[in-house]
Write a structure and sequence with these properties.
elongated, ten-stranded antiparallel sheet, about 220 residues, alpha+beta
Length: about 220
């Protein structure tokens, strides 16, 4: 087989490998109903809100966003724009433990008295410290308004809103973050060697492509 044909086939093998890796699932999300029991300055209140949690890779960490699809708690007086500040925790489970703090902007419009308080999207940063499948579950919600603090906790033991396959700072498995072991060096194959070009396709894909090059080269020699 000629040099151009061997090179084209090797690159095609590497690209095919990269497609498989890109399409592999790394996260599973679901909207979970959370029954919040809230301790307010005027007594206990409760409300159910579907909670959605999303995570977007950002370097070696994730930007996590927690969304409330319905309002929770209420105020006996109207809350003017900017009077209410929400924050919450997200509980980690599975391979990683701890919590992620998330917060959001104050209310942009007035919240009428005795009406459910709509919580804006809350966001924060999650830095994986372990390898494997990690679950993210709604934790404690805190609402600060007019000098008072309302604390809401889930009473129905909600399930995770998100599952991630992650890699910690010192790990070498998982697919959720960019932290992990460096790709192995490519073996040289004479005139076919182009480690810099193939290296941009990623460690695992590079090894697949290089293997194809080596196999084709040796087969040609035996022939």
């Amino acid at each position: 087989m000629s040099y151009p044909k061997r090179t084209a086939l090797a690159l095609a093998t590497a690209v095919a490998g990269s497609v498989v890796l890109i399409t592999a699932p790394t996260a599973q999300a679901s909207v979970v109903d959370v029954n919040y029991n809230c301790k307010t300055p005027i007594g206990a209140k409760s409300a159910v809100s579907p909670i959605d949690i999303k995570a977007v890779p950002s370097g070696s960490s994730y930007k996590v966003t927690m969304s409330f699809q319905k309002g929770v708690s209420s105020s006996p007086v109207a809350l003017g724009a900017g009077a209410m500040n929400p924050s919450a925790t997200i509980v980690l489970g599975g391979a990683d433990k701890g919590t992620v703090a998330v917060s959001g902007p104050a209310n942009s419009a007035e919240i009428p008295a005795n009406s459910p308080i709509k919580i804006s999207d809350l966001s924060g940063t999650y830095v994986p410290k372990a390898n494997g499948k990690v679950t993210l579950t709604a934790g404690v919600l805190t609402i600060k308004a007019l000098g008072t603090v309302t604390t809401c906790t889930a009473s129905n033991s909600p399930g995770p809103s998100l599952e991630l396959q992650v890699t910690g700072a010192s790990g070498s498995t998982g697919g959720g973050s960019t932290g992990g072991a460096a790709p192995a060096a490519l073996p040289k194959t004479g005139p076919l060697d182009s480690a810099v070009a193939l290296g941009t396709l990623g460690g695992t894909v590079v090894l697949v492509g290089a293997g194809g090059v080596l196999w084709l080269t040796r087969r040609n020699q035996r022939a």
